[in-house]
Amino acid sequence: MHEMSLAQALVDQAVELVRLDGCSRVLGVDVRIGALSGVMRDALEFCFPAAARGTALEGAELRVTEVPLKAMCRDCRIESRPKPFEIQCPHCGSMNLELSDAREFKLVSLEVE
Ligand SMILES: [Zn+2]
């Protein structure tokens, strides 16, 4: 499963960070998932505990922030939040949009003991 490898990568990254920091236990993990990242939040939340088992992250809370897709219309200059596959300005109908980077999937911070 795609999300299992993402959860594993997330755990590996966090384990490395706490190791460098000299901490032994992680209580919470904050991640950001962009609307176009392709990461399924539910699947990631489901896989995370299994990936964390036996590591410093075991029992840690996974806190997900979903980052919406944002578009700035180059014609009417109004910012909107279009759906990923219907990219059009809802105000003037223009397709001339500047999209935010919603493909991110990253570890933002760790709460350590
Ligand atoms: Zn517009």
Structure description:
This protein has 113 residues and is α+β, with helices and mostly antiparallel strands. It has a single domain, classed as hypothetical protein PF0899 fold. 28% of the residues lie in helices and 28% in strands. It is built from 2 helices and 6 strands. A 3-stranded mixed β-sheet has the order 2-1-6, with helices on one face. It has a 3-stranded antiparallel β-sheet with strand order 4-3-5, with no helix packed on it. A hairpin with a 5-residue loop joins strand 3 and strand 4. Helix 1 packs across helix 2. The chain starts with a helix and ends with a strand. The mean pLDDT is 92. Bound molecules: zinc ion.
Counting helices, strands and paired strands, the structural category is alpha+beta
Count of distinct structural domains? 1
Helix content: 25-40%
Cα-based radius of gyration, to the nearest Å: 18 Å
For this structure, the CATH topology is hypothetical protein PF0899 fold
Q: Can you write the helix and strand succession as a string?
A: HEHEEEEE
What small molecules are bound in this structure? Answer: zinc ion
